[in-house]
Design goal:
The chain has 524 residues and is of the alpha/beta class. It has 3 domains: 9-62 and 482-521, Urease, subunit C, domain 1, CATH 2.30.40.10; 68-72 and 197-470, TIM Barrel (Alpha-Beta Barrel); 105-190, Diaminopimelate Epimerase, Chain A, domain 1 (Roll), CATH 3.10.310.70. The strands form 4 sheets. Strands 3-2-1-4-21-22-23 form a 7-stranded mixed sheet. Strand 18 (353-356), helix 12 and strand 19 (374-377) form a beta-alpha-beta unit. It binds zinc ion. Residues 70, 72, 223, 418, 421 line the site of zinc ion (ZN).
């Protein structure tokens, strides 16, 4: 048997971070995909099955495998084939779009952010470059899309098209669409986009899972669309997955999920069913996050994407069918509504959760812990959001990304990336949670530095907390006998373990193991 196929092995490292108080040490033994011993020399010397690896890694730190608790994996996978606009000024973006490749008859791109642009995006800028080829460009936070006239045409959007509920077709003074769509108007128009060809999507997803494994990720909680979900399920059935998946389907799939008898927390192989994904509001970047008070210097409070009554009906239907809730809420008004609607609902096999939970009113800080609702947060958004939150939320930012306050009040805080909105690299999230600064180290001392986490706390938000969110905490997320052998060996400066966030950024994953199997390694 080759070492790559083996589900057993032993290793010796500089240190094993177990996140468990039962065992400590520098050696680890696993058999048939499960940990059997940590730090016990007699256990390490027992013979192993033929071909099982025996790894001597005296300079490396071993941690439980990291789980990215919020991905848009299919979008990330296909993103390599799209025009990249993140971090670009308006002229730079237009230059990139001008040379964009036509694929399936469309030019598609993602990542634009007009917060510092000299002029807002408009279809006419794109029409000058591409008068006949339809162009579709998702914003960085994917809550807005920018289309040219040919794309508006294909999507059937004219001056006469009414705004869909929870969405807005941005219009100029004459009432004509500017080409920018917000929230549910994006989803409405996206129905006209070409469906990715399954073979191509699978190839892209396989490449994406290799990249994820190489980043030290052993699992994802994927907020995916139906196409990528179908491919991930096929990969799970035929043994093609090398990463664990908790799949959160879009709420549009609720009727078919109920008809198929899918229940949250069930699954087989590496894929489990998560909760159904609902949106209560938009995003900070698009100023569509729904706030209790107006954005600073404006009368705009963002917007709820549905009425409380409508949302309550959908939630009740899901929960009655054994399907948990995965609820997007960013602004403090949306977060409050999420608690109001979810607190009275029964708990299921896996907990309900709120995605992002970026701005929490002080009165609501203890509600996640009290109701057992998981706070699924993305610290790496801090790397770019600090100036934006300061500008638009002002003093309300005291309740933004409130990792420590939420934890102190008993909330399970799980970390993810929101890739491709932010980089998939969990080192960015660990850094942001520990430092609370941009990558340039500013502001010095960290933005609301009292909310910073230690290395072990931030790590547990990528390991123990996602396991709680999956309902697998009894056997996953820590390194202890009986637990799944999901772990990563890192080349990392010991200063990182003592709180040096920049040392975390410089760390290098060298070995990733899922269910006892080496899924990625660059050890010679
Ligand atoms: Zn997301």
């Amino acid at each position: 048997m080759s070492p790559l196929a083996s589900l057993s092995g032993v290793l010796r490292a500089r240190r094993i971070v177990t996140l468990s108080d039962q065992s400590e040490g520098s050696s680890l033994r696993w058999e048939d995909g499960r940990i059997v011993a940590v730090g016990s020399p007699s256990e390490m010397s027992r013979p192993l099955p033929a071909g099982a690896p025996h790894l001597d890694l005296p300079d490396l730190l071993v941690t439980p495998g990291l789980v990215d608790a919020h991905t848009h994996f299919g979008m990330w996978a296909l993103g390599t084939q799209r025009v990249h606009l993140a971090g670009l000024s308006r002229p730079e973006a237009l230059a990139a779009i001008a040379t964009g490749e036509v694929d399936d008859g469309w030019i598609q791109g993602q990542g634009w952010d007009d917060n510092d642009w000299d002029a807002p995006p408009d279809r006419r800028m794109l029409d000058d470059l591409h008068p006949t080829i339809p162009v579709w460009l998702d914003s960085l936070d994917v809550h807005a899309a920018w289309l040219n006239s040919a794309a508006l045409d294909r999507c059937g959007i004219t001056a006469a098209t009414p705004d869909p509920p929870g969405g807005r077709i941005v219009r100029d003074a004459s009432g004509a669409p500017t080409g920018v769509l917000l929230e549910f108007a994006v989803a409405m128009a996206a129905a006209s986009l070409p469906v990715p060809e399954p073979h191509r999507l699978r190839t892209a997803l396989e490449a994406a899972q290799r990249r994820a494994n190489a980043l030290g990720l052993t699992g994802i909680h994927d907020v995916g669309d139906r196409h990528s979900r179908a491919i991930l399920e096929a990969m799970n059935s035929d043994g093609g997955l090398t990463i664990r998946v908790l799949a959160h389907p879009p709420v549009a799939m609720l009727p078919e999920l109920i008809a198929a008898g899918v229940r949250s927390g069930t699954g087989a192989g590496l894929l489990r069913h998560g909760g159904v994904k609902l949106f209560l509001d938009g995003s900070l970047g698009s100023r569509t996050a729904w706030m209790l008070e107006p954005y600073a210097g404006s009368r705009d409070r963002g917007m709820p994407l549905a009425t409380a009554e409508e949302t309550a009906v959908v939630m009740r239907r899901a929960v009655d069918a054994g399907i948990a809730l995965t609820v997007h809420a960013i602004g403090d008004a949306a977060v409050r509504r999420a608690f109001d609607l979810m607190e009275p609902l029964p708990r299921l096999a896996i907990p309900h959760r709120i995605e992002h939970l970026q701005c929490v009113h002080p009165d609501d800080l203890d509600r996640a812990g009290r109701a057992g609702i998981v706070a699924s947060m993305q610290p790496a958004h801090l790397l770019v959001d600090i100036p934006l939150a300061e500008r638009h939320w002002g003093a309300r930012s005291a309740g933004a990304y409130a990792f420590r306050s939420l934890r102190a009040r008993g909330a399970v805080v799980a970390f993810g990336s929101d890739v491709p909105v932010a980089a998939a690299d969990p080192r960015h999230g660990l850094f942001a949670a520990m430092a609370r600064t941009g990558l340039d180290g500013r502001p010095v001392g960290g933005w609301y530095g009292g909310e910073s986490l230690t290395f072990d706390e931030a790590l547990s938000a990528y390991t123990i907390a996602p396991a709680i969110a999956e309902g697998t905490a009894a056997h996953r997320g820590r390194l202890a006998p009986g637990f799944d052998a999901d772990f990563v060996a890192w080349e990392i400066d010991p200063l990182a373990e003592r709180g040096d966030a920049h040392a975390v950024l410089a760390a290098r994953p060298r070995l990733t193991v899922v269910g006892g199997r080496i899924v990625w390694s660059d050890l010679s």
